[in-house]
Design goal:
Layout lengths: L1 H20 L3 H23 L5 H20 L2 H20 L3 H4 L2 H26 L4 H26 L3 E3 L3 E5 H22 L5 H29 L14 H22 L2
Antiparallel strand pairs: 1-2
Helix pairs in contact: 2-3, 2-6, 3-4, 3-6, 4-6, 6-7, 6-10, 7-8, 7-9, 7-10, 8-9, 9-10
Length: 267
């Protein structure tokens, strides 16, 4: 499993860097959309395994238009799509069988949670990409999150004794959390210096540290959802890593913070 984890990273990381940094934006946005669809299906499997297929299809169609409007820069239309994630499922339930009508709140709640948890954070990466140096900021985010995750794994493996949150994730330790935070901050500072993103070192360090913490919280939240569902991984699409959600859980929690930072502190 550990070997597969490294092989997957060695193959996928350079390709991802190329797509984000200099590849076609259509390909990058298509990749985000594909990740969001796979993430949606994984979340549906975890929180609503009995969800009728028609609602999954509705979610995927709404998600397509959400990403399409973001890609076109039609942000008000994308905002309207957020409302439709509630309106359309409820309307469909209204004109369905009594059994489906009785599940209206649960079905709609599952769709809305999946959208807010998966689609909206990944959609923010499209918005960030439209910002000056947006591709570099996305690489900054991925660098901090992934290196922090790797650092937490090895610090926990070699130095971890005291468990961080055993009832949710038995393998995580305080040493891993602190080690992940430290390497996340250092990687953020180095990346910012290398690519001249701007900002004082203290400011960049605080941002990187905050992103690392958000990523670790996102990891714990995903562990909580998986434990509640009684599964170890959300999928097998990434050998050694699991499903899409297993790989982007930290990015989902960190992307809103990065978007707010760029909106407030960069020209």
């Amino acid at each position: 499993m550990h070997l597969y984890r490294w092989l997957t990273s060695i193959v996928a990381a350079p390709l991802l860097v190329y797509i984000v940094f200099s590849g076609s934006r259509r390909i990058f946005y298509a990749l985000l959309f594909a990740a969001s669809v796979k993430g949606l299906l994984e979340v549906f499997h975890l929180i609503a395994p009995q969800l009728p297929s028609v609602f999954k299809i509705i979610g995927i169609i709404l998600n397509f238009f959400f990403f399409y409007f973001l890609w076109q820069g039609l942000f008000y239309q994308a905002f309207a799509m957020v409302c439709l994630w509630v309106i359309i499922p409820l309307s469909f339930c209204l004109f369905s069988s009594p059994t489906v009508r009785g599940q209206a709140a649960g079905v709609t709640g599952s769709l809305v949670m999946a959208f807010l948890y998966i689609c909206l954070p990944l959609g923010l990466l499209v918005v960030i990409d439209r910002h000056p140096k947006g591709n570099l900021w996305i690489l900054f985010l991925l660098t901090v999150i992934f290196i922090s995750d790797t650092g937490a794994f090895y610090f926990g493996r070699f130095f971890g004794k005291r468990k961080l949150y055993p009832s949710v994730s038995p393998n995580k330790t305080w040493a891993g959390a602190v080690g992940g935070l430290l390497v996340g901050v250092l990687s953020g500072l180095f990346f910012s210096y290398l690519f001249r993103l701007g900002g004082f070192p203290l400011q960049v360090g605080l941002l990187a540290g905050s992103l690392s913490i958000c990523g670790q919280v996102g990891d714990l939240v995903e562990s909580m959802i998986k434990r509640n569902a009684g599964v170890k991984d959300t999928g097998r699409i990434l050998p050694g890593h699991g499903g899409i959600l297993d790989r982007v859980d930290g990015v989902l929690f960190a992307s809103p913070l990065l978007y707010l930072y760029i909106s407030w502190f960069t020209p």
